[in-house]
Write a structure and sequence with these properties.
Layout (H helix, E strand, L loop, with lengths): L5 E2 L1 E3 L1 H7 L7 E7 L7 H6 L8 E2 L3 E5 L17 H8 L6 E5 L2 H9 L3 E2 L2 E2 L26 H22 L9 E4 L19 H7 L7 H21 L7 E4 L28 H20 L18
Parallel strand pairs: 2-5, 3-5, 3-6, 6-9, 9-10
Antiparallel strand pairs: 1-4, 7-8
InterPro entries: SGNH_hydro_sf
GO molecular function: hydrolase activity, acting on ester bonds
Length: about 300
């Protein structure tokens, strides 16, 4: 029989400090990240939140710096997140750290224009190739990628992850597990957010004249490359000790329909999931996190569907 699962309790740093006594929590986690984690009320009203869909068999508390001021735009923004740095490197001890990072960096890299200030942008500073630079058709969607740009992006991700681990290991949380997720594969489409941001991939692929028939495969390739990069980091335990990466690309998410501009499939807009999408990924990721926290062998579990308690 499956044990009872409850959503973790999410608090802002201010709420955490005000409450004081948190002995009821079996596990206490520190979280930060991009809009997939952002849980300020205005953000929740706009789209779902992966963090609040995590479920555990023991009372679990997460103090989230995501959305406390602004969600991370880039991984390097962690340096300018005083709440996160103070809580990670101060006197507080945590059972683990949850991070949602890398997705905004991938989108930003895809958005770098081919021409800037009248001058061509070097290939090592962008992810996409202009039509005159495309490779042979036999290369598939790889013909549109700048491998030089991907090498730059990979170096940036690795350097930032090492910095995060150095922050962890510079205080009382030395060696504590860090949990990261990969991202689901979005459908490039004209579906922006309620705050007028976005769409994100859709205009980038149009600007580079990439055929619409290849958009879905392009999106999958980019997100899969990021997942492979993050998993390779986690596998390198010498440089990235106790880093755990969950491959969200393996969770069956209902794709949005091409050309739609609103909620479609498991998606709220182009790059943010709705509640059913968040539940599917969070349910599977929770299993991995709890296995590490409890020291039990991980039993793979991929949800067949359904929705979380919070509705869709």
């Amino acid at each position: 029989m499956e044990s009872r699962l409850d959503h973790l309790v999410c608090l802002t740093p201010d709420d955490y400090k005000r409450r004081g006594d948190h002995r009821a929590a079996h596990w206490k986690l520190l979280a930060h990240g991009d809009s997939w984690f952002s849980f300020a009320s205005a953000k929740v009203d706009a789209h779902a939140n992966l963090l609040e869909e995590l479920m555990f068999s023991q009372p679990t508390l997460a103090v989230s710096c995501a959305g406390h001021h602004n969600a991370l735009r880039r991984m390097v923004d962690l340096e300018g997140s005083p709440d996160f740095v103070e809580l990670l490197d101060g006197e507080e001890t945590w059972d683990g750290i949850l991070l949602s990072v890398g997705g905004n960096d991938l989108v930003s890299a895809a958005q770098v224009p081919a021409i800037h200030a009248g001058e061509p942008t070097p290939l090592h500073l962008r992810l996409l190739r202009r039509q005159t630079e495309w490779g042979a058709p036999g290369a598939g969607v790889g013909r549109y990628f700048s491998e030089e740009g991907w090498a730059t992006y990979s170096q940036y991700i690795r350097a930032n992850l090492k910095h995060i681990l150095s922050l962890r290991d510079d205080g009382p949380n030395q060696g504590k597990p860090i949990f990261m997720h990969c991202y689901a594969v979005p459908t490039p489409r004209p579906a922006g957010a309620e705050d007028a941001s976005g769409p994100w991939l859709y205009p980038a692929l149009k600007a580079y004249a990439i055929p619409q028939a290849d958009w879905a495969a392009m999106s999958r390739s980019m997100v899969s490359k990021l997942a492979a990069l993050l998993k390779a980091c986690a596998a390198d335990t010498a440089q990235f000790p106790n880093l755990h990466v969950f491959d969200s690309t393996q969770v069956p998410i209902a794709p949005a329909a091409l050309g739609t501009s609103g909620i479609s499939g498991d998606w709220h807009n182009e790059i943010h999931l709705n509640h059913s999408g968040c539940f599917k990924i969070a349910r599977a990721w929770s299993t991995q996190i709890e296995a590490v926290l409890s020291g039990k062998p991980l039993v793979a579990e991929v949800p067949k569907g359904g929705r979380g308690k919070r509705g869709g």
